[in-house]
Automatic annotation (TrEMBL), chains A, B, C:
Name used for this protein in its record: Bifunctional adenosylcobalamin biosynthesis protein
Family per similarity comment: Belongs to the CobU/CobP family.
Entry's EC annotation: 2.7.1.156, 2.7.7.62
Lineage per the UniProt record: Bacteria, Pseudomonadati, Pseudomonadota, Alphaproteobacteria, Hyphomicrobiales
Reactions the enzyme catalyzes: adenosylcob(III)inamide + ATP = adenosylcob(III)inamide phosphate + ADP + H(+); adenosylcob(III)inamide + GTP = adenosylcob(III)inamide phosphate + GDP + H(+); adenosylcob(III)inamide phosphate + GTP + H(+) = adenosylcob(III)inamide-GDP + diphosphate
Organism: Bradyrhizobium ivorense
């Protein structure tokens, strides 16, 4: 199995780095977007990511059922999941049991045949947020990142477009 | 002397990493908590940390007088201070002279016989906070981290549960 | 050419590190401050930086026209630009075309004869900011850092006063 976690801050070049890693494997790459185009800001971001990637990717929109999507797309090229923090945010909004969903993902990853590259965000390196919801989210994101990093073969931390190898 | 500083973001796995380091030394480890159980959120966090650590630690609650606590517990197992940012916050609330207290700590650390492992937070990697108090705090935390890192033998930066060696 | 980018969080020791790098080159170093002394908080910060650096620097205040300042000061000692995030903020306030200005800088840097050391901030590792302006700024800062890191010979990420080599 090949499971690569690419983490970093906003606009650190994580997605681009993950695309490079995904393309390095044989087969047509699959782009699993956890974003839904719900507003203009998100629309524009999705369009920009797509323009950079090019048209040779299989595309899936998967806001919630990530394990199912990985199972369904297994067997061909690498899967790029962009990104886990948005997926976590979707789980919280949908009032799903996020710790259980994260654990299901952690259990499913080592069983994948085709490579999986997962993009996530570091959100816990600023000042403690005022509102309780933001604190809950950053705690959840930190725990998720630790859990997925533990099952990954490789973990990279991207700063200013440059990856540091964590694992 | 052995002084190890473990830094990182919220829920990055710093405390767990620091516990591993503390247990690697001979003798019964001492847990020096700078947190006070003042609200339910903090209560719950303290209980969770304790459950993970197990019962074989000597425990101390030290919101302010860290140098005195280090002196009193010196001579046996390693001391784990969790965490410096909360200590700093306590100093600010109590209107103590925090730069002087940080300097006292920096001077006391090299004189310790038993190992000291200190956990701290990186809080300066987000957007500049709106309110002046938060800006003051993140500036103070950054200066404290530099000061303690300078006297430490080892400094680790933990991201997604994985330590990077800074020193 | 020598172009060194030093990045990190607030009060991480970036400026001090950049000063050490700038002084390592022959010739009188040039300090290019992008800060303007508009309020007491900034005044105090500028004074503190100056006290630390000492009096042997040529000083320039350059809130906007960075490429011109680099051209004018080329040929002698190293130039230290402190810092790019403030410059970006100045560009946004002045309603300049910031992506074009960042590109102009990226194009000008490899043509410099004397070394250039640039300080910047990582601002994207906290929770997503509530207000749209802050989101725009952190996106712009991230893109700027990637662009300048790409043309730099060396990139360092400073945490707790300790540099990690990214490039």
């Amino acid at each position: 199995m090949t499971v690569i976690l690419v983490t970093g801050g906003a606009r650190s070049g994580k997605s681009r780095r993950a695309e490079v890693r995904a393309r390095s494997f044989a087969g047509q790459p699959v782009y699993i977007a956890t974003a839904e185009a719900l507003d203009a800001e998100m629309d524009e971001r999705i369009a920009r990511h797509r323009a950079r990637r090019g048209n040779d990717w299989i595309e899936r929109e998967v806001p919630l059922d990530l394990v199912e999507a990985l199972t369904e797309t297994d067997g061909a090229g690498a899967r790029l999941v962009d990104c886990l923090t948005l997926w976590l945010s979707n789980l919280l909004h949908a009032e799903r049991d996020w710790p259980q969903e994260v654990m299901r993902l952690a259990n499913a990853l080592p069983r994948q045949q085709s490579p999986v590259i997962l993009v996530t965000n570091e959100v816990g390196l600023g000042i403690v947020p005022d509102n309780a919801l933001a604190r809950t989210f950053r705690d959840a994101a930190g725990l998720m990142n630790q859990t997925i990093a533990e099952v990954a073969n490789e973990v990279e931390f991207v700063v200013a477009g440059l990856p540091m190898k964590l694992k």
